[in-house]
Amino acid sequence: MACESLGIDADEAVPSRLVVRHIGQSLVKAMELAKQGGGPAAAQLVACECVVHAETKDHANWELLGKVAQAASGPVGQALKDAHDKVEKDEDHHLYHTKGWCRELWIESLGMPAVLPPPEEVKQVETAIGASRAEQQRSKML
Ligand SMILES: [Fe+2]
Questions:
Q1: CA of 69 to the centre of ligand 1 (A)
Q2: What is the mean pLDDT of residues 2-29?
Q3: Which of 74, 94, 104, 110 could serve as 118's disulfide partner, Cβ 3.0–4.6 Å?
Q4: For residue 2, what pLDDT band results from cuts at 50, 70 and 90?
Q5: 68-118: per-residue pLDDT in tens?
Q6: Dist. CA 6 → ligand 1 center (Å)
Q7: How far is the C-alpha of 25 from the C-alpha of 23, rounded, in Å?
Q8: Which are the contacts of 109, defined by CB distance < 8 A and separation ≥ 6?
Q9: Which residues are CB-neighbours of 6 under 8 A, at least 6 positions away?
Q10: pLDDT class for 5, splitting at 50, 70, 90?
Q11: 95 alpha carbon – ligand 1 mean position (Å)
């Protein structure tokens, strides 16, 4: 929708899309490799890390888009602000929750008591501060 209002062809084959596709395919390949050789627990950890990689970049992209939206004015600025307002909170949620899952699954795999589902999930955090607070409370949630 934002692309349409900005006159951008979202399906145009630009070089940056090839890089993003390559990274995505590499993450899938990593998960397939882990599934073949390391057992289900290791495969789950690799999958979780791949999701954290993807969500970290996703989050960074939306953060940057928010900065551009703040700097832009007129219809372009409004289109970017609208897109950012619709998606940014979801991207926070994706990143903080997947990081929490990954941390706790790793802790469990190392033989230590884990909080599953992770504090970020239980407390339904939506912000970096909330995620930090949730992580700090994890020892009380064991
Ligand atoms: Fe995301």
A1: 19
A2: 93
A3: 104
A4: confident
A5: 999 999 999 999 999 999 999 999 999 999 999 999 999 999 999 999 999
A6: 22
A7: 5
A8: 41, 42, 45
A9: 76, 79, 80
A10: confident
A11: 7
CA angle 20-54-18, nearest 5°? 5
For ligand 1, the distance from its centroid to the CA atom of residue 98, given in whole angstroms, is 10
Alpha carbon of 65 to ligand 1 centroid (Å): 14
Task: Report CA(105)–ligand 1 centroid distance (Å).
Answer: 20
Residues within 5 A (CB) of ion ligand 1? 55, 58, 91, 94
104 and 114 in contact (C-beta within 8 Å)?
yes
